[in-house]
Amino acid sequence: MSKPRVLMIITLDTKAEEARFVRQTLEANGVDVIHLDASIRSQVDDKAEIQPAEVAAAAGKTLQEVRDLKHEGKCQAVMIEGAVKCAQALHARTPISGVIGVGGSMGTALGTVVMQSFPYGMPKVMVSTMASGFTRPFVGAKDIVMFNPVCDIAGLNSITRDVFRNAAIATASMARGYSPVREESRPLVAMGTLSTIDRCTVRVRKALEQHGYEVMVFHTLGTGGMALDQLVKERDVAAVVDTSVVEHNDFLNDGLCSAGPDRSKAALEKGIPVVFAPGNADFMVAGPIEMARQQFPGKRYHMHNHALTAVRTEADELRKLARHLGGLIREARGPVSFFVPLKGFSNHDSPEGHLHDPSLCPVFAQAIRAELPAGVEVREFDCHINDEAFADAIVEQVLKVTHDKVAKVAA
Predict the structure, then answer these.
(1) How wide is the angle at C-alpha 172 spanned by C-alphas 167 and 176, nearest 5°?
(2) Taking a C-beta distance cutoff of 8 angstroms, is the pair 90, 55 a contact?
(3) What is the phi/psi pair of residue 235, to 5°?
(4) Cα–Cα distances in Å, from 392 out to 3, 179, 185, 346, 383?
(5) The CA-based dihedral angle spanning residues 217, 221, 227, 229, taken in that order and rounded to the nearest 10 degrees
């Protein structure tokens, strides 16, 4: 039986000693290693299976042409493009079972972009000096594990040797247990949430599971929504229940949980049925309370914890949110419905909450009706988003819009 294969991404022009150690540890733990070296300095080792010249060629340049750019960012962009192409070509020829990288900021940027090109579930381990407190640009929406080497990556010492060993052993162990994801026969529903609409989310999820669906719930704090959209691009998703719009609010108002301007586009452009609701539209997310007061002066605030503050949206922000969502939905290629609860959009926006304002839900309802195209079903409910009746209506709608897909699976 052949051993699993692990792609190792370490530049030999600056990290040859570390590369040898990681490779030896991987091989000692039962995996074969394919080393991708994206070095661009003039002197490089020639022992890697995928050498720098091959990486540059995959991006349409010679290695000397890359060096002649004399700009680290431009050089890096070429080598990233080539590294992704080389890694994917390798995987197509003989599938790999994991990826490990070691690097500083440059090596981390390259290694993690390669990792992000591989599917969920494949082991992805990055040992990086950026691992302590600055991981979002590198992890993104993928399941990448980052190890903090503590010291700079400058040779081996009693700390880094243990970190490299642990990372290599972890990668090898995961690779030996890895098998490509096999999609379930159950129709898949992707759903966004925060704890502030958890009662709604849990009821919808459990009901759909009882009807034979697989439900994946994503925590909509920025990367969660990005992961939901990435899943939609990669997998056969029957429907999306987009009931937490805080990432849209934060994009529009510079909050902490923005998922960018393309949030929700994946399902709309792919023609997947989407059920929207304005869950968490009642607030934006800011940092500690004093920072929140500086960023959003004169607002109403709720200190969620010492690090996060919910800032109440007012009529202008809700209208702006409606315009933004309406603009996205007008480009939809599949069925879209929008359900609006008129008695509150989250726990905070309830009689028991700290930001409740019953006058504002109708403002959003009127605004979204004005922004949505005629083909979108808009329904208003005289209840709170966390009431059972609202969750049950969402379930009913999902069953309705996925009936044909479910029938095909059953057949």
Answers:
(1) 150
(2) no
(3) -115, 170
(4) 49, 37, 24, 17, 12
(5) 90
CA distance linking residue 182 with residue 365, whole number of Å = 41
pLDDT tens by residue, 218-231? 999 998 999 999 99
Vertex 326 angle, CA 321 and 331, to 5°: 140
Pairwise CA distance, residues 266 & 268, whole Å: 6
- Bridge partners of 76? none
Residues near 174 by beta carbon (within 8 Å), at least 6 away in sequence: 98, 123, 125
Q: Most distant CA pair in the chain: distance in Å?
A: 71
| Residue from 269, 267, 249, 271 nearest 258 by CA | 249
Over the stretch 159-206, which tens digit does the pLDDT of each residue have? 999 999 999 999 999 999 998 866 668 999 999 999 999 999 999 999
For the cut 60, the answer to whether the pLDDT of residue 332 exceeds it is yes
Residue with tokens 């968490």: 280
DSSP letter at 196? G
Return d(Cα 327, Cα 109) in angstroms, integer.
33
HSE-CB for 177 with a 13 A CA cutoff: 7
C-alpha closest to that of 116 among 90, 93, 94, 136? 136
Contact status, residue 40 vs residue 73, Cβ threshold 8 Å: no
